[in-house]
Specification:
The complex is a heterodimer of chains A (253) and B (261). Chain A has 253 residues and is an alpha/beta fold. Chain A has 2 domains: 174 residues, P-loop containing nucleotide triphosphate hydrolases (Rossmann fold); 66 residues, no CATH class. Chain A is built from 7 helices and 9 strands. In chain A, strands 5-6-7-3-8-9 form a 6-stranded mixed sheet, with helices on both faces. A 3-stranded antiparallel sheet of chain A has the order 2-1-4, with helices on one face. Classes of the chains: A alpha/beta (253), B mainly alpha (261).
Chain lengths: 253, 261
């Protein structure tokens, strides 16, 4: 596991503030260093600006003050998964996953091998020619994740991706995401409002305060990987969840 | 009787009953044919004058089709330009509205004077009536692409052209096709109204002049026959465009999906 290696920062966020045009301050003077290979969850009450932070890191919106600096200067490859699957309804699963490669100039034939591998990794092999409307919510989310992973991103950003799914589907996607992360070593920033989900997935959790968002606590989670469903009933998991719930309660107070 | 059978049989039965009642009223009251011809006389006239009326129908259909194609191509192009620049849209949209709300009967005489070619002048009139729904609907469609998908395109550094080609255009397809369906009916109305204003005369006359001519001669049965042909044409245009819309959207859009039951 890369967890044994000396952590190297992938990017650092410094003095970040975001004020919207309507005058709302979403984030204020936020500092955060994200290590390469981390599975970092951002946890906070709704409206604390955690989604805004994710969009800023993705480069989808510019900061009002402060900067986001990537190691090595340039901006690395990013994958983004929204709360909704956000698929193109007129395109097949294959074409939806092809989109990022098409936009960056890869031909269909040149992309096919990588798309096949990505679809297989998410259990979508049999659905390549299917349109999104024929898929369940969980399967649509798998397609959305496949689309984010197909470019082999350095940084995968997920904005409460499983919030709308039922628990069984959510648990399975949690495990699959962890399995892929352990195999492929991208860095993950995962926004969630679920203590249980964040403890299960991450090796580090950043708890944010109410708006304007700031870092209230930075909590490492020492539970060993690989983690599977057995962990959900383990005492150590329960302890971590309890500890984190307290931190979150203090931060939201 | 199943639901789909009822859908066909019920309106057909209503139509038949109304025709029988019409024929009965005409016969019982001995209404002269120059006031109100009965359906049987109209059918007979249609059979007799059919070939000559179909020739006129062909003229009207050609104007209608040309106007619809021009409305789709130019209307679509105008909408794409509007979607590229908000300034362009707010500068020109009001003029599209003005053109739309000004009654065609009042502009048609001017166009007929200015444009020497009859076919072209009628085509322009029909186009003015037909183009607006395509522009308005397509502009709306192009501007209502999913915001998160727009963000995703931005994330992967998509060009303006790529956003238009791979996101905005497919997103706009359903509303574009809805606009085309409205324009199809309007193109026919525009062609007929323009010809009414242009009046009879010229080597080739469309159905509207035949209606005028028949009216002047008190040949009501022929007038009704020509009217019937116009209605059938309008229905055919609607059916063809609806079928086209369903065929193009069949695999993805809600409007074209079969119902669950």
């Amino acid at each position: 596991m890369s967890a044994n290696a000396v952590p190297a920062p992938l990017l650092s966020v410094s003095h970040l503030s975001k004020v919207f045009r309507n005058g709302t301050t979403a984030l204020q003077d936020l500092d955060l260093v994200i290590d390469k290979g981390a599975f970092l969850s951002i946890l906070g009450p709704s409206g604390c600006g955690k989604s805004t932070l994710l969009r800023l890191i993705a480069g989808l919106t510019p900061p009002t003050v402060g900067e986001i600096a990537w190691r090595g200067g340039g901006v690395g490859r990013r994958g983004f998964v929204f709360q909704e699957p956000t698929l193109m309804p007129w395109a097949t699963v294959w074409d939806n996953v092809y989109l990022p490669l098409r936009l960056t100039g890869t031909s269909r034939s040149g992309a096919s091998e990588r798309i096949a591998a990505t679809l297989a990794g998410l259990g979508l092999d049999a659905f390549a020619r299917v349109y999104p409307r024929e898929l369940s919510g969980g399967m649509k989310m798998r397609v959305s994740i496949a689309r984010a992973l197909v470019t082999e991103p350095e940084l995968l950003l997920l904005d409460e991706p499983f919030a709308a799914l039922d628990e069984i589907t959510r648990f399975r996607l949690n495990e699959d995401l962890l399995r892929l992360w352990q195999r492929q070593h991208w860095t993950v920033v995962f926004v969630t409002h679920s203590v249980f989900e964040s403890v299960f997935l991450s090796n580090r959790i950043v708890v944010m305060t109410k708006r304007p968002g700031r870092v209230a606590a930075d909590v490492p989670i020492a539970l060993p990987y690989p983690r599977d469903n057995a962990l959900r009933t383990a005492p150590a998991y329960a302890d971590e969840c309890r500890r984190l719930s307290q931190v979150l309660a203090e931060a939201s107070a | 009787m199943s639901n789909s059978q009822a859908k066909l049989v019920a309106p057909f039965a209503v139509g038949l009953l109304m025709l029988i009642a019409w024929e009965a009223v005409v016969r019982i009251n001995a209404i002269p044919p120059y006031i109100l011809p009965g359906p049987l006389l109209i059918a007979e006239t249609l059979w007799r004058d059919g070939p000559s009326l179909l020739g006129s129908l062909w003229v009207t259909v050609r104007i209608t089709a040309a106007a619809l194609i021009a409305a789709v191509v130019l209307g679509g192009a105008i909408a794409v330009l509007f979607a590229q620049s908000r300034l362009l849209e707010i500068s020109f949209f009001p003029y599209a509205v003005i053109l739309q709300v000004t009654p065609i009967v009042s502009i048609a005489p001017l166009i007929i004077i200015w444009v020497n070619d009859t076919f072209l002048s009628l085509l322009i009139c029909a186009w003015i009536v037909a183009f607006f729904p395509v522009v308005a609907n397509t502009t709306l469609g192009l501007n209502s692409a999913d915001r998160n998908l727009v963000a995703l395109f931005q994330l992967y550094g998509a060009s303006r052209w790529q956003v238009l080609r791979y996101l905005r255009m497919p997103s706009a397809m359903p509303s574009f096709l809805a606009g085309v369906r409205i324009s199809g009916g309007l193109a026919l109305i525009g062609a007929v109204v323009a010809e009414f204003v242009a009046g009879t005369g010229g080597a080739e006359t469309g159905l509207a002049s035949r209606i005028l001519e028949a009216g002047n001669r008190l040949e009501m049965a022929r007038m009704f026959a020509a009217l019937l042909l116009l209605s059938l044409t309008g229905i055919l245009i609607f059916v063809v465009l609806s079928w086209l819309s369903n065929a193009l959207l069949a695999h993805w859009h809600e409007s074209a999906l079969p119902t669950d039951d």
